[in-house]
Write a sequence for this structure.
């Protein structure tokens, strides 16, 4: 996990300064709220890898999920989520653990009905990203749902502005210390299609940050 020390520091710093929030409130970005509605329909359990402060995971509980399980490398992120869980008496409905991708080995095959992967798959080392896809495929039951959100593809022109350090082809370390596996649409299809079927694709605009995210509604094969 040492290779993620800078990632951990970055997110511990962000979540160390973050406030608690209310997961009973509708998420302001309608496409995310709609994605969660699709995810929770006919689904009782959910795993969120890279769950951060639990915003999407806890929202899923209020939209119909019975049991949620979150994993995140940032202890400060988990602390915030746990504070909210205690305040809202959700202890029996959710478990959170601090750790990395290795924690997924401890979970049985087909254990969860659905999964959330929000802004994590393209921020890992490529080898770990592929492992994450395989693990989620193994852990989620066949035909289960996965909601995947990715960063935008950064063009060569945009990369000049960002001072990325290139580690290997299309794999960078950003100035922040975060990794970016810069995935084209074709590459996304190549890596996920052996394991998942894409049911729907959405572009989410974040106007205030002048950026977009890509969101995929996936069905486990
Ligand atoms: C962009 S944030 C997204 C948080 C959350 N999924 C959301 O959408 O609100 C990325 C999260 O992934 C976590 N993370 C990054 N690398 C990780 C790793 N190798 N193992 C586990 N969590 C990781 C970070 O700590 C951070 O909380």
């Amino acid at each position: 996990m040492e290779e993620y020390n800078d990632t951990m520091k970055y997110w511990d710093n962000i979540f160390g300064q973050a406030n608690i929030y209310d997961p009973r409130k509708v998420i302001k970005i309608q496409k995310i709220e709609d994605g969660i509605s699709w995810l929770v329909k006919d689904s009782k359990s959910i795993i969120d890898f890279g769950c951060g402060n639990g915003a999407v995971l806890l929202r899923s509980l209020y939209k119909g999920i019975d049991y949620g399980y979150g994993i995140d490398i940032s202890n400060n992120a988990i602390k915030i989520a746990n504070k909210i869980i205690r305040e809202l008496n959700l202890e029996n409905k959710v478990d959170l653990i601090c750790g990395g991708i290795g924690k997924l080995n401890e979970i049985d095959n087909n254990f969860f009905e659905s999964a959330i992967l929000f802004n994590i798959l393209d921020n890992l080392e490529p080898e770990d990203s592929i492992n994450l896809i395989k693990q989620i495929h193994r852990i989620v039951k066949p035909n289960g749902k996965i909601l995947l959100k990715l960063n935008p593809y950064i063009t060569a022109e945009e990369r000049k502005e960002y001072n990325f350090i290139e580690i290997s082809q299309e794999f960078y370390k950003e100035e922040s210390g975060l990794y970016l596996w810069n995935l084209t649409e074709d590459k996304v299809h190549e890596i996920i299609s052996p394991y998942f079927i894409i049911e729907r694709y959405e572009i989410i605009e974040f106007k205030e940050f002048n950026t977009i995210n890509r969101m995929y509604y996936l069905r486990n094969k």
Observations:
- Residues 2-220 form a domain with the Rossmann fold fold (CATH 3.40.50.150).
